[in-house]
Amino acid sequence: SRDIPEPDLPAFPPEFLWGTATAAYQIEGAAREDGRGPSIWDTYCRKPGAVLHGDTGDIACDHYHRMEEDLDLLAGLGVGGYRFSIAWPRVIPQGRGAVNQRGLDFYRRLVDGLLARGIAPMVTLYHWDLPQPLQDQGGWQERDCAMWFADYASVVFDALADRVPYWITLNEPIGASFYAYAGSHAPGLRLGGGAIAAAHHLLLGHGETVAALRALGRAAGRIGITLNFGPTSPATQEPGDIAAAARADALATRWFSDAVLDGAYPKLLTDFYEPICDFTFVRDGDMARISTPLDFLGVNYYKSWVARACELPPPGERRATDLGAVTEPPPGAELTGFGWAVCPDGFRDTLLWLREKYPGLPPLYVTENGCCYEDYVDPTGRVRDAERISFLQRYLRAAAAAIEAGVDLRGYFCWSLLDNFEWTAGYSKRFGLVWVDYPTGERLPKDSYHWYRRVIAAQTLRCER
Ligand code: PNW
């Protein structure tokens, strides 16, 4: 592996937290084992046409049975942190009520295995896998779901709060609301105002959960939320395109961050949503609860877009994701295997923008950034993913530039440790530093794994000097 390029990066702060990220449904498998209940993704994967090739997370990377091997892969990488999510239906199979001790035990072993290897666990409490029984009661469209979530979080805190330094309430609530209730994610509904209410109830659950952890005192670790940022600019200078891009950008960058950091939804969009949403689900005190101060903000960044205007369905047929805008990659952009634009400058600018826009911004962690390409195992048994190395190199330079410009960025978690179940794309998109052979489950570190290991080692050496 001598031909893997040397990392070429400016120095990061000595205490910078290097890591990788995964999510429960995407890697665990063991969907019916040890008392786990069904989630909305188990159901959705069985809906014809919902997921490419009818793939499911039944086996996934079989991480549930290969946890020790995956812990060793993390240790071999030399990461200081690992971000994973806890499956609510493993801990409380019915969503509320009886706790499944065997589910909790799995995560206790995972946390202990990380700590034994000197790796800090960063735990996401909700990465989109709502227990199906709760969906049957209305899911996030129900205000009560916020309390069901906070109750589940409290069960997890009781078991693990003394050992987990970083908590994340929600991963990308946009995916769990707008895409789930008005798009192509589970449960696959196509709602208008109902999806906006779901988003509000997710945020309310976030606020209640922050309060629940706060009540345990400082020893219980730090808490934040992970939001996705997909900055969107107009494709042309036509007024219609400019207005369409402003709406798309408000949803893709500010709907959730304004609520959490400023205590209000962007007026541009609340005005636009007026024909489909009366916002009566926002009650007195909600926005204060939602904007409870956080210890850190998790930033997921994958790409930027440009948008043009398109026709809007009449209000009666309009979904929350219908913004009268179509998005596409910026012209001339290099694309990843998903057709997503490679735009490290957009990443740097997003980090700078966050600092400008929100005066009380807490420290940042990049909780996801990464790419998929047409990786393959070559005849010598190697995965030569030079494109991923180049991608990561450029994004890490952008992160360094943001730090240099004064952004309080404390860590970077590459998505993902393993190739895994990429939601509606099934197993067709490989984001891993480690190749997974489906369905034998065999792991093979890609060239990018070795490259990232050297990045981390070089940065760590710098801090020891
Ligand atoms: C994130 N988009 O999802 C999720 O947090 C991960 O679970 C996922 O595997 C990863 O990014 C890669 O997709 C996204 O369409 C899903 O812009 C869709 C989009 C962005 C992020």
TrEMBL record:
Keyword Metal-binding attached: no
Entry keywords, A to Z: Carbohydrate metabolism, Cellulose degradation, Glycosidase, Hydrolase, Polysaccharide degradation
Database matches in InterPro entries: GH, GH_1_N_CS, Glyco_hydro_1, Glyco_hydro_1_beta-glucosidase
Catalytic reaction(s) noted: Hydrolysis of terminal, non-reducing beta-D-glucosyl residues with release of beta-D-glucose
GO MF entries: beta-galactosidase activity
Tree of life domain: Bacteria
Pfam families named in the record: Glyco_hydro_1
Family: Belongs to the glycosyl hydrolase 1 family.
Protein name as it appears in the record: Beta-glucosidase
Native organism taxonomy: Bacteria, Bacillati, Actinomycetota, Actinomycetes, Kitasatosporales
